[in-house]
Amino acid sequence: MFKELNSSINGDSSEKLRSLAISSLEEEDDDNDNDDEYDVDDYDDDDDEEEEVPVALGFVEKPKNRWSLLRQLFPSKAGGVPAWLDPINLPSGRSCVCDFCREPLQFLLQVYAPLSEKESTFHRTLFVFMCSSMGCLLQDQHEQWKRHPEKPSRSVKVFRCQLPRSNSFYSSEAPINDGTDKPSGTGAALCSWCGTWKGDKLCSGCRRARYCSEKHQAIHWRSSHKVDCRQSSISPQASDSSSINNFAETQQVASNTLWAQYEIINEDECEFDTEVSDDNGYANSLVSRSGSRMDETVKSLMDSFEGDGDRKSWASFQERIAKAPQQVLRYGRAKPLWPMSSGRPSKADIPKCSYCGGPCGFEFQILPQLLYYFGVKNDVDSLDWATIAVYTCEASCEVTMAYKEEFAWVQLASQSTTALS
Ligand SMILES: [Zn+2]
Ligand SMILES: [Zn+2]
Ligand SMILES: [Zn+2]
Ligand SMILES: [Zn+2]
pTM for the whole thing? Predict the structure, then answer.
C-alpha cells in the first residue's frame, strides 16, 4: 500500500520534504471532522480550535540504494548513524551523553524539514538521540516534570541544524539522486565504534581508530579491536586513514548495537482518509481491529469509563493511528496526538527557546511502532514509550552554534502516576 502511494513523490528527497514542510505549515484545512465523537481535544489545557491541521505521516523503508541515506541527499532516516547536516561542527561534550548513565546517546532518527520562508533554513534537519536504557528514560520522566531546571538532565536530546542554500558543505543545486552526488568536502572524523559522534580520541596503538569517548574505546577494544589494532599497526597502510577520508561512502561502524537503519518516507495523512471513505467494505479490512469494531465494543466500554481520560484518549488515538498503522512519525506543526490524557505537558512545561528566548512549538512526534522496526524486545526492561513529542523554536532562530538543542517531551505508556510525581 505504501509503495504505491509513495511512487507519486519519488522525486529527490529535498523536494519531497520541502513540500512536506510547506504543506504542513501553510495549507488551510477546513475539513469538518465528523468521525470524532469522543474527541479528546477538550482535555487539552490550551484552547485550540478543533480544526484538523494536515499531518504528514512518516513510514520506514529499507533504503533503496547504498547511497540513499548519505548526507548530501538530505535524508530523513531512522536508526544506524546520523547523516549530519553540518558535518564539521558536531555537538560535543555533555550534549552527546545521557545525563543519567553518561553513555554516549544512540541515534534514533532525523527529519529533514526545511522552512522555505527564511534563507537560513533552506536546509534544516532535526536530529533525535536517546539512551537505550529504559531505566534512564524513567529517570528522565522525573526530570521532565521539573519546570525550568537550571541544568536539565535528559536521556532524550534533540538538535536542530540549518544551513542557507549557499554553504560550504553542499552544492547549491539540488542533488541528482543517482549515486553521483558528492558533498563539497569531508566531515569530521567520527567514532570508530558508534559512527555517531566526533572521534576526537585516537587509539594510541594503531593511531587509526578514533573514539568519541573512553567508553566506546573500551568496548571496541574488548569486542574486536584488541586483535585488529595490532594487525593494522604492522600493516604498511597504517598511516593511511582512507576509511575516514572516503566521504562518498557510508561510515564504517564497529558497533553492532545501533538500531537498524531505515529511510523515512512520508505521506499526507489525508491520503489515507480518502482511501477509507471511498469504499466502506474495503475500509473495514484496512482499519481492522481498532477501526469499525470500536464502534460497538470499545464505545460501550468507553461509555462505562466516562471519567477515565486515558481510556478515551487511547481509544481515540488508536482510531486515528489505525488509518495507517505502520506510521512511525507524525509531522505537523499543530499539536501532538497524545495517546494518554495524563502525562501531557501544559504550556508552562514547554520551555522557551534557550537561544532566542522565543516560544517553542510542537513540530513532530515519534510513535512506538519505530521500536518494532528496530527489533526492540517487548520485555519489562526494554525501551518503550507511548510517544515522543518534539518542540522546536518557532522562529527557528539562528545562532552561531551549528547544533541547537531543542526540547522533547516523552509520554510513557502505563506510567500515568509519573504525572503526579
Ligand atoms: Zn542512560
Ligand atoms: Zn562513540
Ligand atoms: Zn588501535
Ligand atoms: Zn530560538
Answer: 0.80
